[in-house]
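Encode chain A's predicted structure.
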Amino acid sequence: MGCLRFILATSVVAAHSTPIFGLSFTGGLLAVQLFFIISGYYMALILESKYLNQPSGYQLFISNRFLRIFPNYLVVLVLSLGFYAVASIYLKKPVDRLELWQQAWTEGRFLPLGLIGLSHLTIIGQEFWSVPWFEPSSGFLLEPSGGGQGADATPGWRFLFVPQAWTIGVELTFYFLAPFLVRRSTRQIFLLILIGLFGRWCVSRFVSEPLSIRMLYYLFPFHLHFFCFGILAFKFRDQMNRMPRLMFYVLAGILTGLIFFSANLKHGAIPWLAAGCLAVVLPGLFDATKNNKWDRTLGELSYPIYICHVFVKWLLLAVATVIGFKGEVNGLILLIASVLLSWLLYSFVDRPIDRYRQSRLTRSRQGAIGNG
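Encoded structure for chain A:
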């Protein structure tokens, strides 16, 4: 399953640059949604096997997930802030995001800026600030003034220094709910999925299109059903592992084709077909690869690649500008550079902290045995 996660991270890199070896893969949003399904499955697995029966299991689970997510994010946030500071000093004026922050500060938008700053420190809530627009004269608005014709309207996500981290905010919201969701019956999980789909329909039907698109793209309630697909895959893992091997290979083949070639397919059924195929084959994929060291390493690189690749893109663009090269960042170059930085993050950040996380879990288990 690590290879799948690596390919999905590569899909996001391609979505933010150029095709890699001529492939655009799934496109960014579908790759993220498939990540959510994998997360739902994996959280259900580790909760049942490691945390649910531990003393203070909920607190241990949440704190360990923060330790898994936050250190890499913090490093990339510091690098991104440093990049903008150096660029501003070099150009002798605030640039891009810093210029937006300066405009908002000058106009007295102190409360929104404080909340955005808090979301930078916690990750939580960044998805909400991706929905509104900002106009210096009017502040943060759900819709730009003048019916979207305002020349100075800027998407809210441009205030974020790790803009792709909105998905991590969605993930963290799921982590808070996961211990409760995993205990729910399959009927209740199905009901949550139906409620989520009905909510999507209501927003698309009754909210103006530009706003509804952003709400459905960014906000957690409209992604919860993807996590639930993963939880259902875990609950039905025994039944799915008993499916005929031919059916498994057919569904895995369809999923592979969609991941590699669906970026230019606009049919609305594509995400649901990919989500359904992934949910059905997830248990088999996990069992087939869980003991493969190389597959696990590729999977461990997927999050660092995802969280650092936008910073790497900014850095490459800056270097290209200085040397006089104009054009979009090449996807393959961006991927290679992101993998190199990701390996450093994995080696010097992830691995030491993961040892600490595992030691916390071991001590908790030993304490439970001693109390028993």
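The first helix runs from residue 2 to 15.
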